[in-house]
Amino acid sequence: MSLSIQNRTFEFQQCVTSYDKINRKQHNYIKPNNQEWPPKKSKFSQQASIIAKDIVHVTELLSKLALLAKRKPLFDDKPVEIGELTYVIKQEIFKIEQNMQNLQRFVKGDASVVVDSQTTQFSKNVLNLLNSKMKNVSGEFKNVLEIRQKNEIMNKNRTENFLSAASNHRSSNNPSPLVESGDHLSNLGENPYLMNTQRAESPLPYDPDADPDVSYPYSNGEYLSIPNQTQQMLLMEEQGGQYLQQRNRAVETIESTINEVGNLFQQLATMVSEQGEQIQRIDENVEDISLNISGAQRELLKYYAHITSNRWLFLKIFGVLIVFFFLWVLVS
């Protein structure tokens, strides 16, 4: 007996194709719905995340400033870079402070959003955390500025000591005999730096240690004077004075910045104390509520115990109900 075999491959391929089309339609129908409702953050969470990122950025800048401020070179201590970093950090701190005040006002006075007590408590905890972090950053910034101020004062004192020592050394030297015989110069037409050692009254012996600014004599008894040392000393004093002025301005800038950061630190401390008072009041209210709940529970338990202990009352009530039932049956 032979079996008939039918080739149904084409039907199977059609079924697979139709099944793929149905799956694609369902996928295309579900995908826009998933894209239409993305997970969204609340406005409070967005602002808090922005403030946290700004605090991290300020912390990185503050670490760079601390490395630069703790260096103690007399020259090339990068004052321009330190000043720029100080200005940027100060502006960032003020911006974060304003954002935190706006966020605090949003938590207190935003009546358009209905939140429960847990959400309010979470918002206050986030504010306290941000305030504490900002307080630490401000304190660290103030410490770095104080270190920078101490280094500036030390560099200023060292520069003043160096310049005063150089000036005392220059003034303590004996006057050069060539300077004393300046009215008896000879051969000024050919070389003004050549001076004759012979005075009109008596000859002056050559002493190389007496005047280091004069070279060894030539064969004709003339000396080569180098008068640029005094000019170099004056130029050094002028440069030192300019350097001291720059240091003084830098110290004044640091002092003003420290005062501003101190005021900001006081504002942050005030905000933290206000948040602490609010949390304390909330804790007191929670304690009062728990006491009231426990008192009500005790009263209910007393009433339940009183009812369960008075069984004779139940019998009286049951007897009265039975009497009324029989009366109703007899009357009806």
TrEMBL record:
| Domain (T-SNARE coiled-coil homology) ranges | 241-303
| UniProt key word Nucleus | no
Biased composition range(s): Polar residues = 166-176
Q: Could you tell me the membrane topology recorded for this protein?
A: Single-pass type IV membrane protein
Protein localization = Membrane
- Which CDD domains does the UniProt record give? SNARE_syntaxin5
Keywords in alphabetical order, please.
Coiled coil, Membrane, Transmembrane, Transmembrane helix, Transport
One GO biological process this protein is involved in is: vesicle docking
Q: Which residues form a coiled coil?
A: none
A single Gene Ontology CC annotation of this entry is: SNARE complex
Q: Region Disordered: which residues?
A: 166-191
Query: Main localization of the protein?
Result: membrane
Report if keyword Coiled coil is assigned: yes
One GO molecular function term of this record is: SNARE binding
The record, for InterPro entries, names:
SNARE (IPR010989), Syntaxin (IPR045242), Syntaxin-5_N (IPR021538), Syntaxin/epimorphin_CS (IPR006012), T_SNARE_dom (IPR000727)
Q: Which Pfam families match?
A: SNARE, Syntaxin-5_N
Residue spans crossing the bilayer? 312-331
Which family does the record assign?
Belongs to the syntaxin family.
**Record-linked PANTHER family:** SYNTAXIN, SYNTAXIN-5
Please report the name of this protein according to its UniProt entry.
SNARE protein SED5/Syntaxin 5
Q: Which organism is it from?
A: Scheffersomyces stipitis (strain ATCC 58785 / CBS 6054 / NBRC 10063 / NRRL Y-11545) (Yeast)
The coding gene here is SED5
